[in-house]
Design goal:
Blueprint: H1 2-5, E1 6-9, E2 23-26, H2 28-34, H3 37-43, H4 47-63, H5 95-109, H6 117-132, H7 161-164, E3 169-177, H8 195-199, H9 206-213, E4 216-218, H10 224-244, E5 261-270, H11 272-284, H12 299-302, H13 314-328, H14 330-341, H15 354-391, H16 397-411, E6 417-418, E7 425-426, E8 434-443, H17 472-486, H18 489-492, E9 503-514, H19 515-527, E10 541-542, E11 549-550, E12 552-555, H20 562-565, H21 575-587, H22 597-612, H23 627-648, H24 660-663, H25 667-678, H26 689-694, H27 699-706, H28 720-729, H29 737-762, H30 765-777, H31 788-799, H32 823-849, H33 861-868, H34 893-910, H35 937-944, E13 959-962, E14 968-970, H36 983-992, E15 995-1000, E16 1006-1010, E17 1013-1018, E18 1021-1022, E19 1039-1040, H37 1042-1054, H38 1057-1060, E20 1065-1066
Length: 1071
């Protein structure tokens, strides 16, 4: 029975953060035939239930295309009236009611302030009801008087609504205050009805003509008995006033008393039909909006019921009434046509609110400022070009390039920021900087990536266990510890990146404000006594415009986006010249910025970034407090944000363009803040990795470095993406595109040799000998340095000098089938090895220079990104593409490869067992995911309900399990409390750097912990009807809702818990 009248609506997750239950909604035919809005209004107790029903009914009408606006009464076709209530319909044909309807229509048309839309709905409803219940169709020969006169007012000639609708009223006499400025104080010379109305019925009875020739009486519902009673009151009041005070020429009234009323005459010259036509114009906002439909199609008068007019808003109701009036009287039809042919008064202009006027003024000022700025820039560019043409040798190519660069810089407009607090627009300056509203939060999402595509399952038995050894965070932490054990500490901290666990992620809503306006805003929040869901003392606030949660402001670097203007700059410099320029720029010591408001804010936001995460995630040096820690942390912040954006894009750049996160990215401003602070740290030129990458070292220098007790980290052990960020952030800003491309080309050569070394280790001994011999035969070729076969042969021959290949290969490192390493598989391996670096580099180029990210297929990603980065040579042929063709060696290829391999050979002589462990392997990290949950909730409940806690060895009263790592914890358990932190809060800091996702076993709901706050997220287990069973009170079988769990995982990966969920509260470390 239920399925016959309703459809089941599956549970969904609202953007506001609340979880909806599964519910049944009426079918379309039930809404159309059975739903009665009037009955709902009369029978429902609470107003909110009425509004909910009407909203759903309106949504159905809009979805079915029956109405576009909000429907007006009667909402749908009226049912037949019961015969017992027929007598009530006679009230609709009463002159007094017609006077009321005319008065209300006139006041609504004149924008009377006390008349709402609901009043207009009722007026139109009564008029339409009167037309439908007319006794019989009106005769055009003679107007019938529908009963005995009981009202002596001279507004209308009779009681028939059909004839009264076309009756014109010229003047009315009203009672108004003496101070009111009225149009006429004396009766006009002629107060007859409109000539057209009088001439339309020449055989009208003389009594009616005499009645129409007079002026309409009091503009109110005053019958003769009320007028007599008012005269008595006025006479008694006049006598009392004369007894109290003598007569004077001026009438005295006490302050605040009701002013004396006097009679005035107003010119109307309207009928109900004319008022309805003008009301249609007003509702539509267009002049002459109503056009009689029967002029184009006479069938509209023949059809009794037109589906077009069954539902609609006010304009549809007016059209329906006019059509019914024309259908019942040919005179009404003719008068409506005449009214529409007349020139209607223009629609009064739309009133512009002060807020809209302020927005329009701001846009106009902004447009004028941009026009003036463009004019000045064009004039400056013209003058500069003229000067350079006369003062310099235009034949010189260097002069032409310099002129193009200068002209390009002049034409780039300065970035303009809109403050959402004060509303002013302007550039960010040193003294009054603007900033982006940002949220800084610690993140361990990247650390949960695993090197397998199969998701880990939540343990539901003693045999099932989860070990964190294969997570990204564990692998990189072990690698850093191993490097620090064998190599110099400062060199190790420049060879890897941190932030996989406890990294700082910066995201913005995209709105900007002045720093001084933000300080005033924060001060007002501190003085606000209203209970807030955030801590102002910790710098938390909501964006003044979009109300998105934030906790800092990222200053915008002043300037005209020079990086983007230098994008098109071409250079004829050689690779060696660019390498030398990069080295010279890096050796320039960064100067501490002057004490300006901008520099102070940059220092302040850098402190906020450092304080966002815990100290254990920032201190990796053997010497506590070492500046190497800060150096490592700063470029790792950039790496974390780039890697997370790559995760948000799906792990690759095949889709291209700007993702949702990319459109609101703040990486450009973040890079300026990080670069300003990293320039303060100098790298010893003797140990600068740039020299090892671009120069051949002398024998005595290499021996000196190798003889140290703790040598530098070999170049082939260094992470290419980390070196990229170090090189760029230590360069003076803004960075030129030619220098950026030079750094990429140099680092790609290192990355490619790392791939060849890792490949040689994976090969069996027979494969190595085969490739070494085949490559040696091609070494004399002209393009040998761009052939992976020749380069692989040289790498294997160099590493054979040490003990790298002497260890027995395990099954994990060697492949059983020698045929697996064919040229195609090797080329695929090399491309997959280099792709993570190309993705990070392309994202960095996109944010620094505004380069577009083209879309492509997965198998074309390497080629497209290499071409986008400028690695492919100009004479590139897609048919003969090889990854080695992207190489551009700064020095002789085989010499620099021998130098890099000699470092591994030297290390292998001392520690042969660690050589292969520290080699950089192919990155096969899957996207971060939550644990996979079983289909039936009973499986979880039966295992964890009586499970003992591993800390206190007791069965917790409120057990919970972490959905990120599967750890079993005690909720609110005092037995596991450590240093005033309960176990759930402590685990959220250790596992998610302050973010925890826990499933409460006894309640089937999920709780989110974010820093010092928490919220109930909802449940991902629902019953067969899509409803939650919180606290398991109903005992229904619960099943996983994959859609909800996917939403939960997406919010965790995108770091949007703070923005989507609104019901937050402090946990006081008690969870």
């Amino acid at each position: 029975m239920l399925s016959a009248v309703a459809d089941f609506k599956a549970p969904v997750f609202e953007p506001g953060g609340s979880m909806q239950q599964g519910m049944y909604t009426p079918k379309a035919e039930v809404w159309d035939k059975e739903f009665d809005p009037v009955m709902v209004i009369l029978r429902t107790v609470y107003r909110r239930d009425v509004q909910s029903a009407m909203d759903r009914y309106t949504a159905f009408l809009k979805q079915s295309g029956k109405v576009h606006g909000n429907p007006w009464p009667p909402y749908k076709k009226r049912t037949h009236l019961h015969p017992s209530y027929k007598g009530l319909m006679r009230l609709l044909h009463c002159k007094t009611l017609h006077i009321v309807l005319f008065t209300l229509l006139y006041k609504i048309l004149m924008d009377h302030q006390n008349l709402s839309e609901h009043v207009l709905c009722m007026v139109l409803y009564l008029i339409e009801l009167g037309l439908e219940n007319s006794s019989e169709q009106e005769s055009d020969e003679e107007d019938s008087i529908g009963g005995q006169e009981r009202c002596h007012d001279s507004w209308f000639p009779g009681n028939n609504l059909v004839s009264n609708m076309r009756h014109f009223i010229n003047y009315v006499r009203v009672r108004v205050p003496e101070t009111a400025p009225e149009v006429k104080r004396e009766p006009p010379a002629s107060t007859s009805a409109d000539g057209s109305a009088a001439s339309q019925n020449p055989r009208r009875p003389k009594g009616l003509q005499r009645e129409n020739s007079g002026t309409a009486q009091v503009f109110s519902l005053v019958a003769e008995r009320r007028k007599k009673f008012q005269e008595i009151i006025n006479r008694n009041t006049t006598e009392a006033n004369q007894a109290v005070r003598p007569k004077t020429s001026m009438k005295w009234s006490a302050p605040g008393a009701t002013p004396q009323l006097t009679t005035a005459i107003l010119e109307i010259k309207e009928s109900i039909l004319s008022l309805l036509v003008k009301l249609h114009h007003k509702l539509s906002g267009k002049q002459n909006s109503y056009y009689p439909p029967w002029l184009d199609d006479m069938e509209t008068l023949i059809q009794c019921e037109n589906p077009k007019y069954l539902h609609g808003d006010g304009m549809t109701a007016v059209e329906r009434i006019l059509l019914k009036a024309a259908l019942q009287s040919r005179l009404n039809k003719r008068i409506i046509e005449e009214i529409c042919r007349k020139v209607t008064p223009p629609v009064p202009p739309k009133k512009i609110s002060p807020a809209e006027k302020k927005i329009l003024d701001k846009e106009e000022r902004r447009q004028k400022a941009r026009e003036r700025q463009q004019k000045l820039l064009a004039e400056f560019a013209s003058r500069q070009k003229s000067f350079m043409e006369t003062a310099m040798d235009v034949e010189s190519p260097d002069a032409e390039i310099a002129m193009e660069i200068a002209t390009a810089e002049q034409h780039v407009p300065e970035a303009v920021y809109d403050c959402v607090i004060c509303g002013q627009s302007g550039p960010s300056t040193e003294e009054r900087p603007a900033g982006l509203v940002v949220l800084l939060q610690a993140s361990s999402v990247l650390g949960q990536c695993r090197n397998t595509t199969e998701p880990k399952k939540l343990p539901t038995s003693e045999k099932e266990q989860i070990y964190p050894w294969d997570t990204c965070a564990a692998v990189y932490e072990a690698r850093l510890a191993t490097l620090q054990h064998f190599f110099k500490d400062s060199s190790c901290l420049q060879s890897v990146s941190i932030g996989w666990e406890g990294g700082v992620y910066v995201q913005t809503c995209g709105h900007t404000l002045h720093i001084d306006c933000h300080k005033s805003y924060m001060e007002s929040l501190r003085n606000d006594q209203v209970l807030q869901g955030f801590s102002v003392d910790k710098g938390e606030f909501t964006c003044p415009l979009c109300r998105q949660f934030a906790n800092s402001v990222l200053p915008c670097y002043p300037g005209n986006n020079v990086e983007r203007s230098l994008w098109q700059c071409h250079s004829n410099k050689t690779m060696q010249d660019l390498i030398k320029e990069v080295e010279d720029l890096q050796e320039q010591l960064g100067t501490f910025p002057s004490e300006t408001n901008l520099s102070k804010e940059m220092e302040s936001v850098m402190k906020d970034i450092k304080s966002t995460t815990q100290k254990k995630y920032t201190d990796y040096s053997k010497s506590p407090g070492s500046p190497d820690n800060d150096f490592l942390f700063m470029y790792s912040v950039a790496r974390t944000n780039l890697e997370l954006e790559l995760v948000h894009r799906g792990g690759n750049l095949c889709l291209g363009g700007a993702s949702t996160a990319g459109k609101r990215s703040c990486l450009h401003q973040l890079f300026h803040v990080l670069a300003m602070h990293m320039r303060l740290y100098s790298i010893d030129s003797a140990y600068n990795p740039w020299k090892k990458l671009t120069q051949l070292m002398q024998n005595d220098e290499s021996l000196q470095i190798c003889s140290e007790e703790q040598p530098e980290v070999p170049v082939l052990y260094r992470d290419a993406s980390s070196l990229l960020l170090i090189q760029i952030l230590t360069m003076p800003q803004p960075l030129r595109k030619e220098h950026f491309t030079c750094i990429i080309k140099v680092l790609f050569t290192l990355l490619y040799i790392q791939a060849l070394v890792a490949l040689s280790v994976k090969c069996s001994a027979e494969d190595r000998m085969t490739w070494m011999n085949s490559g040696a035969l091609k070494k004399s070729m002209s393009n040998a340095k761009k052939s992976w076969e020749v380069l692989l042969s040289h790498v294997i021959s160099e590493l054979y000098n040490g003990k790298i290949y002497e260890q027995e290969e395990t099954e994990d490192l060697a492949m059983d089938s020698t045929s697996a390493w064919c040229p195609h598989s090797i080329e695929t391996y090399l491309q997959q090895f280099c792709l993570p670096f190309l993705r990070i580099t392309s994202l960095l180029q996109h944010h620094l220079f505004g380069a577009e990210l083209p879309s492509c297929q997965e198998d074309e990603e390497f080629t497209v990104l290499a071409n986008c980065l400028g690695l492919l040579p100009p004479s590139f042929q897609s048919s003969e593409f090889s990854s080695a063709s992207c190489l551009d060696w700064p020095v002789p290829a085989f010499d620099i490869i021998s130098q890099w391999c000699s470092e591994l050979v030297s290390f292998a002589g001392k520690h042969p067992t660690q050589v292969k462990i520290l080699l950089i392997q192919e990155a096969k990290w899957d996207l971060p995911r939550l644990l996979q949950l079983p289909e039936n909730y009973n499986t979880i409940f039966q295992y964890y309900h009586r499970k003992s806690c591993s800390v206190c060895s007791k069965v917790p009263k409120d057990p919970a399990v972490c959905l990120v790592c599967g750890t079993f914890v005690c909720l609110k358990g005092l037995c596991c409390k450590q240093q005033s932190y309960c176990e759930c809060v402590l685990h959220s800091q250790n596992c998610g750097a302050g973010t925890g996702i826990f499933l409460l076993i006894n309640a089937s709901v999920i709780i989110i912990i974010r820093g010092h706050r928490f919220c109930l997220w909802g449940s991902v287990y629902l019953d067969a009807h899509g409803e939650e069973d919180r606290d398991l009170r109903r005992g229904k079988p619960l099943y996983i809702c994959k859609e909800r769990y996917k939403v939960l995982e997406q919010q965790w990966v995108s770091h949007t818990f703070d923005h989507i969920n609104k019901r937050w509260g402090p946990h006081y470390n008690g969870l």
